[in-house]
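G., the chain you wanted modeled:
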Amino acid sequence: MITYERLRAMDPAAWRAAGVAWGALVETVDRPAGAIRSGANGLRVVWSGAAAGAADGRLAALRAELAGSRPVLIEIDQLLAEYAEQLARARAMLAAAGPSTGAPRPGGEMPGGGIPGGETTGGAETALALARRADRRAARALTELAADARTGWTAPPPAGRPPATAGPLAVWHWWQRLAPAQRRWLLGREPALVGRLDGVPVAARDQANRLLLADQRAELRARRARLLAQRPATAAGAAELARLDGLLDGLADVEHRLAARNGPRAYLLSLDPAGDGRAVVALGNPDRADNVLTYVPGMTSDLPGLRGELDRAERLAARCGELAPTRQSAAVLWLDYDAPDFVDEAAGAKRAEVAAPGLHRFQEGLRLTHETAEGSTATRTVVGHSYGSLVVGSAARDHGLAADNLVLVGSPGVGVDHAARLSAPGTAVWASTAANDVIQYAARSPGEALAGLAAGVALPGLGLPLVLGRPGEQLWFGRNPVDPGFGARVFAGAPRGHTGYWDAGNPALDSMARIALGVAP
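Predicted structure as tokens:
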């Protein structure tokens, strides 16, 4: 039983480190599984008959046992990370309640029923209850895993899989009908299916996508090696080599963040190295968070540049933690669309319209799986930056978004002329554009904006605002969201250009965090 004294002495970081160590054992399991596979292939060449068939069957069973353990190792990592996070919250609540007037009584109760300063023990009691609840949950889950080890971690699921067109609700119902052993069977044998389905809980998607990482990295390296072996090299080959190098760097950044012991645990919800690369990474578990923030980045976002975008999401999560240390917040980087690389690509709304259904499905999946995990809803906020705000606007306008708040920063317009066209009942629309963000001078057409940029280079003393004119009421994709006529709730930020909204000390960062926490900035 956790007492006040024990809670104060507990070290959440030690539990987090233990979880990371368990997750790292996946690679340890992969090595003997690979050796068994190679050995079995070699035996088939030189050995046949009944005995050979029996041996092959036994080796296949051993490989299956090893494959079944891989999701379990990641599951243990998740359980211990969430336990550590709950302990950290409980300790923060206990500290906020203030020091006790004396030593705790046996059983952990405070003497006198109160704490100094006229406060009651409510905060301390809530902290202790949270820690005890987390302890029971972690112990129960680990005990169930140990029991499953005796009866078998995996079991084949019934026939039938959700089609690629299945909506999150259908996926959610399918997943709920599966037993834990059947889910693990799918995770171990069909991770590519599970990892991409909106409506599957965050923890399961994370397990599936982590299991795919090694194969994705190996495939990129093999393609790179084949290109290097080509003689003579071609211009197209050199461009492809540069693309593969960028993807491998981005993949390394993903793996580094997944293995980090500091900050909220990362959950890999999607990873696709095709093209420029796409990824969806959550910092903290959205299924268990009180506040869930989804960040949609803009032009030039891709897998090679993931670190910068992930840093922005992490700054938002950290600021939420600073403002409300006793509440659980999660920030998701949603880079699951083909963001424009150049201004001419960003001049059209087509990419945003193609991305919009995916963002709608993702948010709906988060809504369903959070209610499954916690029995209640979270405060959900979607932040779109630059072209990403057009993705958010297109999704909200054409499909609807499961969100309490839509936040549009540095926006070139969102495809509508009034906030009312974006919001369902109860959804608030917020907007901010820095005074020196060039996006607000991109009025009328991209061509005119490019001409203005060229003039700004030729006449640097005038500055972009003087060259391009006053901030535009109408931008590339509709009315400026910070214009009073648009109807959004406008919050201010420091004048730090188009990408400075996440800088430390910028009031815009503070405002976005407060909005995500459900507190008006």
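The first strand starts at residue 266 and ends at 272.

Shout if anything looks off.
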